[in-house]
Structure to design on (193 residues):
């Protein structure tokens, strides 16, 4: 049998022990004795608990984000999306995972996005890009801070991005551009007379 159990020591500390034991039977099939090996696995159990708590904190932080958080593999298929991403797209996570993130990118932004991604992969491993997403409620602008995730051999395996909605800023910039254009047109019209 294999068992993990805790032992409280005299000083009040707790140690984890892994015990592997085997029964030894006599010729008449009567149990004669049990032999076993016990190993102190306290450090492993503590490391597992530390990792478990770290994962809970990380997941909580990512899921509570109001910004979009996503990961995609080399082919562009989504491998992770947070709740904010699901809410924006009005789709459950299981319907988003496995789809190519480019399905949601405005067609006019795809070429620039490919160029930025190629430069990022070859050079800095980080990028900032602004692109439009097509959502059920309409087109929204997002500023994406993205970085690549490498395996132990330095090979690209995933692209991770955090997207912040910048639609209002882009609309304000467009309004300002149009206003400046009208002013230039007015001044140029006055100069022509």
């Amino acid at each position: 049998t294999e068992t993990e159990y805790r032992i409280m020591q005299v000083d009040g500390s707790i140690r984890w022990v892994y015990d592997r034991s085997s029964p030894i039977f006599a010729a008449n099939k009567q149990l004669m004795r049990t032999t076993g090996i016990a190993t102190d696995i306290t450090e492993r159990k503590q490391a597992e608990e530390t990792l478990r708590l770290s994962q809970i904190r990380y997941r909580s932080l990512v899921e509570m984000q109001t910004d979009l958080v996503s990961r995609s593999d080399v082919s562009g298929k989504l491998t992770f999306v947070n709740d904010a991403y699901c809410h924006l797209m009005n789709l459950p996570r299981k319907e988003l995972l496995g789809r190519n993130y480019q399905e949601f990118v405005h067609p006019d932004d795809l070429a620039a996005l490919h160029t930025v991604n190629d430069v990022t992969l070859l050079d800095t491993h980080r990028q900032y890009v602004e692109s439009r997403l097509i959502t059920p409620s309409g087109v929204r602008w997002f500023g994406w801070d993205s970085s690549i995730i490498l395996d132990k051999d330095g090979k690209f395996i995933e692209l991770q991005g955090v997207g912040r909605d910048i639609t209002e800023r882009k609309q304000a910039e467009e309004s300002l551009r149009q206003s400046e254009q009208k002013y230039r047109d007015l001044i140029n019209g006055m100069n022509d007379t």
